[in-house]
User: Fold this.
Amino acid sequence: MKNTLLKEKLQNNELTIGSWITIGHPSIPEILSSAGFEWLAVDIEHNSIDNSMIQTLISTIQSKNIAALVRISKNDEVAIKHAMDAGADGIIVPMINTKEDAEKAVEYVKYPPLGRRGVGLSRAQNYGFGFDQYREWLLNSAVIIAQIEHIDAVENIEKIISVEGIDGVLIGPYDLSGSLGKPGDFSEPDYVNAIGRVEKHCKKKNFPLGIHVIEPNEDLLISKINNGFTFIAFSTDFYFMGENAIRLMNLL
Assistant:
């Protein structure tokens, strides 16, 4: 039985917290699964995780009763098909800047007549022995998250969140600040205003509002929860490891 809890929480706009996997080894999700995350996202945009390891990581995450998402490399039909056929519970799509971008992402996930994804038999379909069940799950429970990480996306946020099949948005702070010419400057007024605009329109529509809290800092996490963010990616595997190692060594 594939995971449906994440989809239900998104539909109800309830708080759900996950984290980011960038290291291509199954021990990473095994370790992070003990933290209580409800989902883990395998990031294949900014590292060298290959298709074979994607499937291994997905299956490891799901073995811990956690939803497995894949942040794909780009809004591409083949990339999305590979992730979904490997059995992902959903995808996070970078650089969704327009309504048309969002519509394409949905089409690439869904089978005809709702979409145009090629129909094949792989792990997701239990190698052909569970195709009917997968087709039903795909229709009702697959998760599609649009990443908002460019000022163009902010300008088009109302249209993006109106697209049927988009389950939530996830603000990418580094790329969004980079699109404003000041990467990593999260106090810059234009960046703060951009975040505020996304917040305003998502809250108005009671639409799941997400952000990636990069630093493993509980105060930052709590502040986003208090501000009404409900789909939160909390830090990354390497940041959890490095931050704690540095902090503990600095105590000596």
About this structure: The beta strands are 16-21, 39-43, 67-71, 90-93, 143-148, 168-171, 209-213, 231-236.
